[in-house]
């Protein structure tokens, strides 16, 4: 069965339409002011309404406080909230209760040891996402195009469909799926012409490749 894709950090109607036309199963809004892809919840709500019922809407957050999570829940009404910071399992449970959204928890990966907590997280999430641990000194926890060794995922089994992320592009995503066995893939900077500037042609190429993989 072919993998499904999430296109993350969408901020414009033409790039969101490219993702929907190409069959993205998930579309992501990054609500994190330090990101070049940051979008205010009110703007995201207007933009992402066209995606409702066509793809699952994901709000990407980093150690967000209750006020921001409540704003996101009430205004954007995402299907899922992606926790891309240092959130604990207790906090994830609280985010689910507070927002009514499903949970994607991101685990940063560099070595085998970074999978130590994966099984403990499973009862608390709808999906795990394995993203590259960002380089030392990076000002962002994700969206920096960093890769990890996809073979670290081969032969691992998880309770829910899981994502591989980090440094994926139209040119390497087929190999990432083959090596890792990922049922879900996530991309941000790999379908951009500059940081925060998504390219509709690269989105289409990425989704075509995932479908064929
Ligand atoms: O994209 C961002 O700016 C971002 C900011 C803060 C947390 C997460 C972010 N993006 C997520 O990181 C993955 C991997 O990015 P990339 O493909 O390596 O550029 C991305 O898919 C988002 O889920």
Automatic annotation (TrEMBL):
PANTHER family: N-(5'-PHOSPHORIBOSYL)ANTHRANILATE ISOMERASE. Residues 5-208 form the N-(5'phosphoribosyl) anthranilate isomerase (PRAI) domain. Keywords: Amino-acid biosynthesis, Aromatic amino acid biosynthesis, Isomerase, Tryptophan biosynthesis. Pfam families: PRAI. The gene is trpF. Pathway: Amino-acid biosynthesis; L-tryptophan biosynthesis; L-tryptophan from chorismate: step 3/5. Belongs to the TrpF family. Gene3D superfamilies: Aldolase class I (3.20.20.70). InterPro entries: Aldolase_TIM, PRAI_dom, RibuloseP-bd_barrel, TrpF_fam. GO terms for molecular function: isomerase activity. It catalyses: N-(5-phospho-beta-D-ribosyl)anthranilate = 1-(2-carboxyphenylamino)-1-deoxy-D-ribulose 5-phosphate. This is N-(5'-phosphoribosyl)anthranilate isomerase. Its EC number is 5.3.1.24. NCBIfam families: PRK01222.1-1. It is an enzyme of class 5 (isomerase).
């Amino acid at each position: 069965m072919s993998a499904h894709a999430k296109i993350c950090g969408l901020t414009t109607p033409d790039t969101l339409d490219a993702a929907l036309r190409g069959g993205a199963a998930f579309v992501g809004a990054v609500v994190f002011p330090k990101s070049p892809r940051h979008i205010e919840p009110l703007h995201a709500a207007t933009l992402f309404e066209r995606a409702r019922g066509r793809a699952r809407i994901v709000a990407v957050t980093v150690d967000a406080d209750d006020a921001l999570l409540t704003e996101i829940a009430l205004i954007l009404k995402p299907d899922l909230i992606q926790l891309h910071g240092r959130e604990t399992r207790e906090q994830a449970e609280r985010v689910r209760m507070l927002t009514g959204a499903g949970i994607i928890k991101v685990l940063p990966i560099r070595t085998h040891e970074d999978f130590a907590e994966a099984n403990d997280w499973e009862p608390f999430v709808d999906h795990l996402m394995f993203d590259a641990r960002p380089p030392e000194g990076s000002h962002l926890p994700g969206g920096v195009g960093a890769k990890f060794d996809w073979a670290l995922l081969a032969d691992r089994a998880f309770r829910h469909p899981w994502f591989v992320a980090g440094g994926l592009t139209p040119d390497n995503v087929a190999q990432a799926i083959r090596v890792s066995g990922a049922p879900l893939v996530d991309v941000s900077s790999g379908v951009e012409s500059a940081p925060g500037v998504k390219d509709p042609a690269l989105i289409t190429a990425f989704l075509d490749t995932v479908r064929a993989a």
